[in-house]
Write a structure and sequence with these properties.
39% helix, alpha+beta
Length: 319
């Protein structure tokens, strides 16, 4: 029986009942009173819980409001659902993955474990990497070696790049390589599935150009996978069903939402940073007539040009 499960039980019991008795914990988990006291000391010393013994009620309680893990059971169940779904879709459910899944379940209280198979995670897009390429990149990052890469971009143009691999990032089910492009002297993002081949350059080591925090900031700078330090704040509005859909979604940690009046109707106005206007454009177009761009002017024009191009496509006779 894992200590984290007992810690979660102690915390939840105090939250729901006001306190918990050592005998209650010992009986539930069939452990000694000494082990219970070690768990309580762990809460106090390691997790800084304001837990104390109330002699009048003969139980342990909190002296002030304290949150250990908000909705811990539910959060672990969601995490396990994501893990099991990804493992199954890759066809790698095995004794090892079952053990890892059970390890996650061990942090959930007994009463919640039966729900594990009732919670599912399904994502419509999964762009699984070529694991030979994935392995090469991981090995080069571990050894801090530069790499030579043959790459085909979205327009099917082939190029040879010399790069310093820095991060592997999964965004919306697709894998990307964040690397420093030695020719262009800047950070670039490469779609892993478009890498034709990639090999380390033995003896040619990565130069320490960026700190970990700087890379984190670069990755999370704007909406989408096309990252960069320079971002443009984009504003758009959505209506009707799109308004209800977006109200519960987070597109970026810095997004701002507000309800605005347009005549007798209400719209949800969204403002967020974007490093590439084309990427946010494609997401907005998915809402069709239920959305429109507001600013900046170049984004509005890009939206209009896209609609014009789509209209021209409709005018092409079908064969």
């Amino acid at each position: 029986m894992s200590q984290i499960e007992r810690i979660v039980f102690i915390n939840r019991t105090i939250e729901e009942e006001g306190g918990v008795r050592t005998a209650q914990i010992a009986t539930t988990y069939q452990i000694s009173r000494r082990q219970v006291l070690r768990d309580i000391d762990y809460l106090r010393s390691n997790l800084e819980a304001p837990i104390t013994y109330d002699a009048a009620k003969r139980w342990y309680t909190y002296t002030k409001e304290f949150t250990l893990f908000s909705n811990s059971n539910e959060r672990i169940l969601v995490l396990n659902a994501i893990y099991r779904s990804l493992a199954r879709s890759q066809g790698i459910m095995s004794t090892l993955t079952d053990m890892l899944s059970e390890g996650l379940d061990s942090g959930v209280e007994k009463g919640y474990r039966s729900l594990s198979e009732k919670i599912m995670f399904i994502t419509p897009v999964q762009d699984w990497p070529d694991y030979d390429i994935f392995n090469q990149v991981c090995s080069a990052m571990k050894s801090e070696l530069r790499m030579t890469m043959h790459y085909k971009n979205a327009r099917s143009e082939l190029s040879v790049r010399h790069i310093e691999p820095l991060r592997l990032v999964n965004y919306s089910g697709r894998w990307y390589l964040l690397a420093f492009d030695l020719k262009h002297k800047q950070l670039r993002t490469f779609h892993l599935s478009r890498i034709i081949s990639i090999v380390p350059i033995q003896g040619d080591r990565i130069q320490k150009r960026f700190g970990e925090e700087e890379l984190d900031a670069f990755i999370t700078s704007g909406y989408g996978i096309f990252m960069g330090k320079e971002v443009t704040y984009v504003t758009f509005r959505v209506y009707g069903w799109a308004k209800e859909t977006l109200a519960t979604q987070t597109w970026h940690k810095e997004q701002q939402l507000r309800t605005v009046k347009e005549g007798d109707a209400e719209a949800l106005e969204v403002t967020l940073p974007a490093a590439d206007l084309h990427e946010i454009l494609s997401s907005l177009l998915a809402f069709g007539a239920a959305a429109k761009p507001i600013s900046p002017p170049e984004f509005v024009q890009l939206y209009r040009d896209s609609l014009s191009d789509m209209q021209k496509n409709l005018e092409i006779p079908l064969m």
